[in-house]
Amino acid sequence: MNRRGSLLGCIAFAAFGFQLAHAAGYPTKPIKLIVPFAPGGSVDFIARVIAEPLTRELGQPVVIDNKGGAGGLLGTMEVVRAAPDGYTLLMVSPSVTAANPAINPNAGYDPVTDLTAITIVAAGPTILAVRAGFPAKNFQEFLAEVKNNPDRYTYATPGVGGILHLEVEYFKSLTGTSIRHVPFRGAGPALVAVTSGQVDMLEDALPSSLPQINAGKLVPLVVSAPSRMKEIPNVPTFAEVGLPQLNHMSHWGILGPKGLPQEVIDKVNAAVRKAVSDPTVKKRIEDSGGFVVASSPQQFSADIKDLYTQLKKVVADRKLTTE
User: Looking at residue 320, what is its pLDDT?
Assistant: First the structure.
């Protein structure tokens, strides 16, 4: 080996050794947990539920930093560009791990290769629901109605390119239906548009729609969950109605930058597992309609890859764009 090669090798070895030493003592300062959406949504809720117990488990403050904008891209890119030292982490939903990069060629990141999966903290069901007064009260009637009336009905989403937009497009592809998309700026306005009768239907997280279901302003048709939900026991799952491809719940997980040391991954994963085993924390998640998961990094990584691949195909098949 020449002197230049030897020198470079020594520098690389020294840097690797420094990284290992740094990871071994991790954490030694506050950890920033970026939520790439405005306060008040489901991602923000889960982040705030676990921030305090994570602080206890890790021995350093876990500080929530809401960096909303561009459908989650602004906050996500801050983590993509961050040093892989474990002090800048990202709280995500499938909009970040699959939908946005699948539909937006200018997203600037690949969720499989540019971020490090740490754990799925929790998951929650979504429902397909229609406005009160819609001429169908169950899934079979609904499917017949929209098939017999292509382009007559509309569905609301929190915006173009999010997970709920692509999930309904996937539903349309699987069922051969044609329903017009009406995007809004956020989940709240989309929900109001349906409950007020301006738009016919939506897919939404069960926790945010449940009060409107109980008030009779929304009629739930089908839910994505492993089994029927106790809150809506008469509503079948997507698997029950012959659409198992759509029967996956929405995940809320933690990612880090690419190249995160294994020691950091393991430490944060273990801290999350311990945090969500606390009965109080678990109850808060379950009371919101979610399920504690606390997955391994490998499980989360596989889930991201599967959903991202699936949604890229949906985008290509249906020629979807962000325009």
Answer: 86
Q: Write down the mean pLDDT value for the chain.
A: 90
Q: Is residue 131 within 8 Å of residue 235, measured between CB atoms? A: no
Domains of the chain: which residue ranges?
A: 28-124+249-318, 126-246
Q: DSSP code of 289?
A: T
Run of H or E residues at 317: helix 297-318
pTM: 0.81
User: 3-state DSSP: the chain helix, strand, coil percent, rounded to 5?
Assistant: 45, 20, 35
- Are 28-124+249-318 and 126-246 equal in CATH topology? yes
Distances (CA, A) of 219 to 35, 131, 172: 31, 6, 19
Residues 122-130, mean pLDDT to the nearest whole number: 94
pLDDT digits (tens, 9 = 90+) for 242-266: 999 999 888 999 999 999 999 999 9
> What architecture is the 28-124+249-318 domain classified under in CATH?
3-Layer(aba) Sandwich (3.40)
Closest Cα to residue 204, out of 214, 194, 196?
Answer: 194
Partners of 218 in the β-ladder? 131
Neighbours of 30 (CB within 10 A): 13
CATH architecture, domain 126-246: 3-Layer(aba) Sandwich (3.40)
**How far apart, in whole angstroms, are the C-alpha atoms of residue 176 and residue 243?**
12
Helix (H/G/I), strand (E/B), else coil: 84: coil
One-letter amino acid of 212:
Q
Quote the CA–CA distance of 174 and 186 in Å, as a whole number: 26
How far apart (Å, rounded) are the C-alpha atoms in residues 162 and 258?
Answer: 23
Q: Residue 65 is encoded by which pair of tokens?
A: 């930093």
Reading phi first (left if > 0) and then psi (alpha if -120 to 50, else beta), residue 229 is in: beta
